């Protein structure tokens, strides 16, 4: 059937989507989410996902095309498009096999990831793959295959053979946990290369990339990253800008709505990013506590063993740190406020948050020892000496300049609200999720200067009406929203 193209002036990402009216779709025996082949004679041919409308906006002799599809087909006035039914990718059969509980071969997993990267699978089909991994699980063989497939279908950083390349990762859930921006400069100051790619916030008030973006450019392609790392020894950048592990980013998007974190997929997700940047020494931080992803010591120990085992199978030396996830790390929650904390620690300022400083030093110490830069038991002293000497701050400045300094003044939002203690007592607990949610309602991370600054931590004494924390916002409307949400301040005081 030949149809007249009609442009729909909306961008939908990288997917190719076309729209038919209900009558035309019925004539072709097509249903929503079916695939159709669209040919523009000698100008191009694509496979698109079909959407169907019941309105008269798309006429019987028309096909609606979103911007990406229109541009790919190089549509000109007078063009008539040939529309035919397209077969589903073979990978959909493999996804069905996983839903049935069958083990997938490396070839089948590679086929699925190839189609994810090339947007040949719909979000629904990708979600079914995630669901299959969640309900039926992935064994070690499948996890390794998934890791390598994610790496092979994205960009990679390649360093000299035998060169020590270090990296670190936190599985998340703790507000303000910006240890990367302190530990990486410490390690890099000792001559160890650390090509750190980090994520942006999905449900948190800030990811490492969001906080680093306050100080420097975080959008760098793979070639530029290699230049930066070879020049100054490290980078702290956004992984999405490098197109490393692109398939993983797409799967994370569909995992998010139901918070699906299949263990094998979580392991592959993290290890693929490390494998792709050439890391051969990796530190994994697993926060443990009631308000984070890993609730119990037993769960943490099991995940620790999994990471170490998968690391061995990939040829990567992995160390795992089980850390306290019971409360926020540092004082600031939100890009600017977290950056203020980081720079206070790097500059050795007296008011620098001690818990952020201590954790970052501990992590740097582990990396220095596992890479052989420090003798066993001497890593903490070496890391502390580097920080106190100012070498870590100097290295951070080099990283910032190499990536492109923002020369930003670190000032929190001009609108603020002090939250005070309802009674005298001892802080018994802090609700990580509540603090994170409040910071996001205030505008973080979209508004970089928004967030929360904490004055009291667990175990500290507080007087009635003494400030617990301050909410900052960049506009009054956001601060009003935060006030309305304050039915629970997130602190338990006894």
Features:
4 domains; Pyrimidine Nucleoside Phosphorylase, Chain A, domain 2; 494 residues; 4-stranded antiparallel beta sheet; 18 strands; single chain; 18 helices; 6-stranded mixed β-barrel; Barwin-like endoglucanases; globular; alpha/beta
Describe the protein in words.
The chain is an alpha/beta fold. The protein is built from 18 helices and 18 strands. Strands 1-5-2-4-3-6 form a six-stranded mixed barrel. Strands 12-15-17-13 form a four-stranded antiparallel sheet. It has a three-stranded parallel sheet with strand order 7-10-11, sandwiched between helices. α12 (297-314) links the parallel β10 and β11 (317-324). 50% of the residues are buried. The mean pLDDT is 93.
Which descriptor suits the 3D outline? globular
Mean pLDDT: 93
Distance between the termini: 73 Å
Number of domains: 4
Record the strand order, biggest sheet. Answer: 1-5-2-4-3-6
Briefly say what this structure is:
The protein has 494 residues and is of the alpha/beta class. It has helices at 22-27, 67-72, 91-99, 106-117, 123-136, 140-152, 180-188, 208-215, 222-232, 246-255, 263-276, 297-314, 335-346, 354-370, 379-389, 391-403, 432-441, 476-484; strands spanning 2-8, 17-21, 35-39, 45-53, 62-66, 81-85, 166-170, 194-198, 234-238, 281-288, 317-324, 332-333, 415-420, 425-430, 451-454, 461-462, 467-473, 491-493. The strands form five sheets. Strands 1-5-2-4-3-6 form a six-stranded mixed barrel.
